[in-house]
Specification:
The complex is a heterodimer of chains A (about 300) and B (about 375).
Chain A: H1 8-36, E1 40-41, E2 47-48, H2 54-59, H3 62-95, H4 101-109, H5 116-127, H6 132-147, H7 168-193, H8 196-204, H9 209-220, H10 222-237, H11 241-246, H12 254-262, H13 268-299
Chain B: E1 7-16, E2 19-29, E3 34-38, H1 45-53, E4 60-65, E5 68-69, E6 80-83, H2 95-105, H3 110-123, H4 139-151, E7 157-161, H5 169-186, E8 189-194, H6 197-203, E9 206-211, E10 214-219, H7 221-226, H8 231-236, E11 241-251, E12 254-259, E13 263-267, E14 278-283, E15 289-291, E16 311-322, E17 326-333, E18 338-344, E19 359-364, E20 370-372
Parallel strand pairs in B: 3-8, 3-9, 6-7, 7-8
Antiparallel strand pairs in B: 1-2, 1-4, 4-5, 9-10, 11-12, 11-14, 12-13, 14-20, 15-19, 16-17, 16-19, 17-18
Classes of the chains: A mainly alpha (about 300), B alpha+beta (about 375).
């Protein structure tokens, strides 16, 4: 590998196009939006960059803070459920016979290859009143109900379909469904590297499976858990499509509010301020995590 | 012996799919014994050890520890502890936390745990290392942590899986002595798995040599070396010259084997094999004495210059390998067969006595060869 010092022209040639691409299509628009967040609407289409902080001040209104807080809660719930569901899945793949592993990983990644919109509409088909979930539960209800008189129980009434869609449950369900692979893959990577004899040593020293999991496996998989949490929590916090399609009137998340500012409300400066509050929060969280990591490394 | 075995292995088989890893093994291991399972890789020794620890279940047969059937006892409930080949020291815990892990799980509280951890660390000569992290230790020290972590549990049996294989040669020799001392000190039964015959011979009270899932021989180190039961053991433990032959004479106090490669080999004891049977003669390289033809102690009436009652052969030196303490010779016999002879260098100029293509005479005692029926 040549040092970039010895081949400046080559490195400039290879590095320039992507750098320019990022600059023109990412950094510049982001800068524009950032500037908007300090602006005021002067007419329907004109924004004056007046350097005001009033957009940020408005974002601190309890209404918006409430939605932001709720978004954090929904994203946190999503992340926790993803860990609880994803950890056993990752463990199962790690301990599966070698010839099954690629297929199990494929099954985890398969949803990636389908458009998010299509996946979300499929969820609607599953969760709606006449959806597959209600049909299946209704069928169970009816067939068990038919058996009830045989064992001396009263015949239950007709099945009342559950409201599974257009509420917070649907949003979290949808977010977990979308983000589970992001959790499973880093967990799998961390657990797969784990020396299996450490688990055996723990069992050998008298620990049961649960304590081995908590005292040995989880601490050693911590880096995987942390990266899983970050790449699940951050996109879940900014989720737009899932709450938009699966949520009810009270399950809006911050991204839905932002979208409305840019479109229906036509208040770009306020939308920009809300967007950047989300970004600042994310950056602070990641910086905090990095700082913790460095402290942990320094202690060792 | 009135004592009951601490571990009884009864007709144990272990199959992985089509592969039989352990094939009908029965062994009794006595309390306080230093027992070694020796064999080449893939012979089933590690599988057998893991079945004692509980990480594998026998396909057939029974394992009893201290008289109790272990069929339904999981590894965390067995009165045995294991030192893993990779040591498996928990990297996120300090040395003291590693050693105290099992006690903490068992609910042994603060002060007692601390003092037992300190004792265990002293036992393995790691006093003062308690606060260190495993990544600050050398391989040998990590192994001591693994040892202390198991010994602190006061198990009935300590299982060691290739305990010395990851150490360099000097450290390995030192640890062989230390392990034997340690075992003396704590009085716990040790069962060690190794593929290294030196390790096995130097540490073990008894050795079970395993081959293809079966026990090829169970004996003390010296019996194993001097009286191997079959060609596999003779060849695997130490170095050996093997010659095929026919048993032509077999009486209570003498026997003779006619080997096409070596000539007639006389023994001063009986063999109790079928007359005319195909047998193998095994002779260790160090049991053969080498000298310049005509300079041996010529015995009156003997056809050759060898002491009376000794076997005799002649050949040409075709290879020499000077190892410092001994020199190894590859000698081509008159029959064309090769014979390996080792000779201690008892004085500084011994290695100059012979050189390539020298004609040499060899002789060995009539009780040196071993006749093997299988």
């Amino acid at each position: 590998m040549e040092s970039w010092r010895n081949a400046k022209a080559l490195f400039a040639g290879v590095g320039f196009p992507p750098a320019a691409w990022l600059l023109v299509f990412f950094v510049v628009p982001l800068g524009v939006v950032w500037l908007y967040s300090f602006g005021t609407n002067t007419s329907l289409t004109e924004i004056e960059i007046s350097g005001t902080f009033s957009n940020y001040a408005r974002a601190l209104d309890p209404l918006y803070l409430g939605i932001l807080w709720k978004s954090v809660l929904v994203a946190a719930a999503t992340t926790v459920i993803c860990i609880v569901v994803g950890f056993p899945v990752a463990l199962a793949i790690v301990f599966a016979p070698d010839r099954w592993k690629p297929w199990m990983l494929l099954a985890i990644m398969l949803p990636f290859w389908t458009n998010l919109l299509i996946r979300t509409y499929a969820l609607i088909a599953v969760l709606r009143r006449e959806g597959y979930a209600n049909q299946a539960i209704g069928w169970l209800h009816d067939s068990l109900g038919a058996l009830a008189p045989l064992v001396g129980l009263p015949q239950p009434g007709a099945y009342e379909p559950m409201e599974l869609l257009y509420n917070n449950f649907a949003v979290i369900f949808g977010l977990v469904y979308v983000h589970l692979p992001f959790m499973v893959l880093p967990l799998y990577a961390a657990l797969d590297k784990l020396d299996k004899s450490l688990i055996e040593a723990s069992l050998d020293l008298g620990a049961g499976h649960l304590r081995t999991l908590l005292l040995i496996v989880a601490p050693l998989a911590a880096p995987g858990i942390v990266s899983g949490v970050i790449i699940t929590f951050v996109p879940a916090l900014g989720a737009y499509l899932t709450p938009d399609l699966l949520g009810g009137p009270d399950s809006q998340m911050i991204a839905n509010v932002i979208e409305r500012q840019f479109k229906r409300a036509n208040d770009w400066p306020f939308g920009a301020a809300l967007s950047f509050i989300l970004m600042y929060a994310t950056f602070i969280a990641i910086a905090f995590q990095a700082m913790k990591n460095r402290q942990a490394e320094a202690r060792q | 012996m009135a004592e009951n075995p601490i571990i009884e292995i009864r007709n144990v088989c272990k199959r992985f799919g089509q592969v039989t890893a352990v094939d009908n093994v029965s062994l009794n291991i006595m309390p306080g014994e230093f027992f070694v399972l020796l064999g080449p890789s893939g012979c089933g020794k590690t599988t057998l050890l893991r079945m004692i620890a509980g990480f594998e279940l026998p396909t057939e047969g029974q394992i009893l520890i201290d008289g109790q059937d272990m069929a339904r006892v999981p590894p965390n409930k067995r009165p045995v502890n294991m030192v893993f080949q990779s040591y498996a020291v928990f990297p996120h815990m300090s040395v003291a936390d590693n050693v105290g892990y099992g006690l903490k799980i068992a609910g042994v509280g603060g002060a007692e745990r601390e003092s037992r951890v300190r004792e265990a660390l002293e036992l393995v000569k790691l006093d003062g290392f308690g606060a260190r992290k495993p990544n600050q230790l050398s391989g040998g020290q990590r192994q001591r942590v693994a040892l202390a972590r198991s010994l602190v549990m006061r198990p009935k049996v300590l299982l060691l899986d290739e305990p010395l294989s990851a150490l360099d040669a000097k450290l390995r020799a030192q640890m062989q002595f230390e392990l034997a001392d340690l075992q003396d000190q704590v009085g716990i039964t040790f069962i060690t798995v190794t593929h290294d015959q030196d390790e096995a011979l130097s540490m073990a009270g008894r050795i079970a040599v395993m081959n293809k899932g079966e026990v090829a021989q169970l004996a003390s180190p010296s019996d194993l070396y001097e009286f191997p039961a079959n060609r596999f053991v003779a060849d695997f433990v130490g170095s050996v010259n093997l010659f095929e032959g026919k048993l032509t004479l077999d009486e209570p106090d003498r026997a003779a084997v006619d080997c096409p490669g070596l000539g007639k080999v006389y023994l001063n004891h009986g063999v109790t094999g079928p007359h005319g049977a195909d047998v193998w003669v095994a002779i260790r390289p160090e049991k053969i004495q080498l000298h310049v033809p005509g300079e041996g102690k010529a015995i009156r009436g003997a056809a050759e210059d060898a002491p009376e009652g000794h076997n005799f052969a002649r050949g040409t030196i075709k290879g020499m390998s000077y190892l410092g303490d001994i020199t190894l010779f590859e000698i081509r016999l008159e029959s064309g067969a090769m014979l390996r002879v080792s000779r201690p260098n008892m004085s500084r100029r011994d290695q100059e006595d012979f050189t390539w293509d020298d004609k040499v005479s060899m002789h060995w005692r009539a009780d040196s060869p071993v006749v093997l029926l299988s």
